[in-house]
What does this fold into?
Amino acid sequence: DGGITQSPKYLFRKEGQNVTLSCEQNLNHDAMYWYRQDPGQGLRLIYYSQIVNDFQKGDIAEGYSVSREKKESFPLTVTSAQKNPTAFYLCASSIVFRAGELFFGEGSRLTVL
Amino acid sequence: EDQVTQSPEALRLQEGESSSLNCSYTVSGLRGLFWYRQDPGKGPEFLFTLYSAGEEKEKERLKATLTKKESFLHITAPKPEDSATYLCAVRDAGNMLTFGGGTRLMVKP
It folds into this structure.
């Protein structure tokens, strides 16, 4: 079955550590996205990519980094520069020209201790 | 700046009690309004796309409608399994997506 796989589902990190969240899709979608979700707030866009080897900053990119070396993969690194990293992180993909119809992964919950 | 406001924040219904969720928006050049369902601890699941005022979409007990300023998600005779958070989002002329804060629906048997 086609879909998006995020890992790990839960992650604990000490302050000052970088962590990388994995996102893999087998939907053959060109566009991939990373969102952050905090309680009571809408999803906020961190980074997106519409093609391999190219990505764009979203609304809250500071303290995060991404890479897009393969069409299927879009990992997100939460760096020590991110001041409030505890959140639920969602990866999504779409056909480029149907950018509102996103397929989401199950999410990764990051907790900073 | 695009804005999406969903109301109410939370809604409790008895099984079979129909109601509506509201999504008000301001957007520069609407290129689509989208509804999603999100279960606790899961990623959102796409439900509907609406493109123009007057358009309606239906799926089982859900019907989404669109005007020039807002969208409604009508839930007819809800069941406990309809309990979830419902998210609304708009896409603007620059192809950017803005999400609302969601409405948490709880349907009691």
Q: What stands out?
A: Chain B has a mean pLDDT of 96. Chain B touches chain A at residues 4, 9, 31-34, 36, 41-46, 49, 87, 89-91, 95-102 (CB under 8 Å). Residues 29 and 93 of chain B are 5 Å apart (CA to CA).
